[in-house]
């Protein structure tokens, strides 16, 4: 059985937005970025959605801000771990 291709974790886009905002795609390897995404996403409970517009339309601004802060903190913690454990960057 296959679910729908459109179903995804909303935090994925928030984590990717944060990575872009920090300019990490220009300074870090693809392996580092993949590990960072995994570390960050594993820190947060997933919020599965089918369409991005659903979250934009139905999510209160305060909850979206909290989710953005959660993603920012998770990325920071993931970066701290990877930067302090360079030998484990190949998870």
Features:
single chain; 91 residues; mainly alpha; two-stranded antiparallel ribbon; 5 helices
Task: Provide a descriptive summary of the structure in words.
This protein is 65% helix and 4% strand. By secondary structure, it is mainly alpha-helical. The chain has a two-stranded antiparallel sheet. The chain is globular and about 40 Å long. It starts with 7 loop residues before the first strand and ends in a 7-residue tail after the last helix.
Cα(first) to Cα(last) distance is 29 Å
Count of runs of 4 or more consecutive helical residues = 5
The portion of residues forming beta strands comes to under 5%
Q: Using only CA atoms, what is the Rg?
A: 14 Å
DSSP strand tally: 2
Largest sheet features: 2 strands, antiparallel
Arrangement of strands in the largest sheet: 1-2
Structure classification: mainly alpha
In terms of quaternary structure, the protein is: single chain
The low-confidence parts are none
Gross geometry: globular
Mean pLDDT across all amino acids: 90
Provide the helix percentage.
Answer: 55-70%
**N-to-C order of helices and strands:** EHHHEHH
How is this structure best summarized?
This protein is mainly alpha-helical.
